[in-house]
Amino acid sequence: MHRIATLYGLLAIACASLVATAISAAAQGIYSDQALKRDAPRLQRAVNQIYIKGVKPKLTAREAASLANIRFSFPMPRPNDHILNFYAGELSGGPTVILPLQSLKLVEDLATAFAWLYISKRPFGPLDMYFAMLQRKSPQDIGSAGSRDILSAIGVPKNVLKNKKIDKLSLALRNEAFAFIAVHELGHLLFKHKGLQDITPAQARADEVQSDVFALDVLARSGTPPMGAIIYFQAQIFSMPHRGDHKTRAAWQNYLATASTHPLSVNRIRAMAKMISGPLAARRTTETEVWQDIGRRLQAMSTILADVELHNCITRIAEQAPVSLLRQTGKAEHAAIKRLCRVQ
């Protein structure tokens, strides 16, 4: 049982699909419309610059020709929008990558939160627990309007980006995450993937893997490690259905086969880990160890994601522990694990 406490400390690295499933009401309205409109020009400019300067020059001639007419759309939140939902499709204006402003803002704040925890040598558990609490608690439990964002919830100082080390790391992580997200969605357009209503769950999962591979490959061409993408994945780990939500393995397998198009797949993570630590790392003459380390972390996470006991433990903590736990030390986290998960 002690392994639960050990594994919980590793949840800084996780992986999931780019399309979030339903999440609780606590996740709605994390940011006000006013705040999103204020930040919209900056977020749009960041995505466009990342694409024009970092992604487009690395596309092959065939890829560039196929994606010549794509455009980006940055909509404001709509009722019942998922908080982390990026997608692509053939819209009235042509092939379009849709990047909702609320989702971009949350990814940016997640990068800032991760950088602050890392530079401050703090445990990463609050990042994962925040999203688990969004899934399990009511809006009032998380905080008042305007304070349910991840920075407020875990206690990141308002002036945190004045620290040059944190500012530099958070910007790098944000740009890596934005690049992966954009290229993954471009992959759906490049490979002409059909809408979910026209294909089986199995085909949808295969399409996700194909877009994953494409995004990782393009990032490798540009020398961009996918660390920012991986901290983005961690945000979804406990905001998606997982094995612990199903009483039996058979029920989980039935869900995968009939209902799920974007599950947190252990096999998908292992495939990404193998690609990152293998052929992609081999291409990097100066950053091989970085890529191999990311691959090893993903491989370790695939084992963690298969741990039903761990998932159930985190769910109990998210349901029963106060939100103030997010601002406390690692010792408080382990105390909650012991109390709620019967760990000695």
What is the average of the pLDDT values? 81
Number of strands: 3
Largest sheet entry: 3 strands, mixed
The global form is globular
Helix content, binned percent: 55-70%
How many DSSP H or I helices?
15
- Whole-Å distance between the termini? 7 Å
Order of helices and strands: HHHEEEHHHHHHHHHHHH
Description of the molecule:
- The protein is mostly helical and 344 residues long.
- The protein has one domain (2-341).
- Helix content is 59%, strand content 4%.
- It has helices spanning 2-8, 33-55, 61-66, 101-119, 125-136, 139-142, 150-154, 164-190, 201-221, 227-234, 249-258, 266-283, 288-305, 308-320, 330-341; strands at residues 71-73, 87-91, 94-98.
- Strands 1-3-2 form a 3-stranded mixed beta sheet.
- Strand 2 (87-91) and strand 3 form a beta hairpin.
- Helix 2 (33-55) crosses helix 4.
- It is globular, with a radius of gyration of 19 Å.
- It starts with a helix and ends with a helix.
